[in-house]
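Page 42, continued from yesterday. The earlier attempt failed because a stray header line got pasted into the input along with the sequence. Redoing it now with the clean sequence only.
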Amino acid sequence: MAGGRDRRVPAIRSTVGPGRGRTERTLYVVAYDIPDDKRRTKVHKTLEGFGRWTQYSLFECYLSDKEMVILRGRLDGLLKPSEDSVRFYPLCAGCEGRVETIGSEKPREETVFLI
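This time it went through. Structure tokens are written below.
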């Protein structure tokens, strides 16, 4: 981190799944600014597989560490760093609880059942 110590707040961790094999997940707000329509569409479709689209260039994603690595790898193959920008904002437990919304629901982790 430029200019000093890393002062990041620990991200919220929610635990999904009973007992063994539980996965800790962090809520990330993912924002992107991509001028090229084709690349922007590919990034949007990629993010749809990891979280919920909440505003034009914004997703809310509950990700495990492994899912974050997978998402970053997929995005790296799509982006042009000289033109595109994707930002990941992890939310701490206190921050997530204080999210205020007007006209939409607060962030929530989707429950997925695999049979």
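Notes: Residues 1-19 have pLDDT under 50 and may be disordered.
Reminder to self: strip header lines before submitting.
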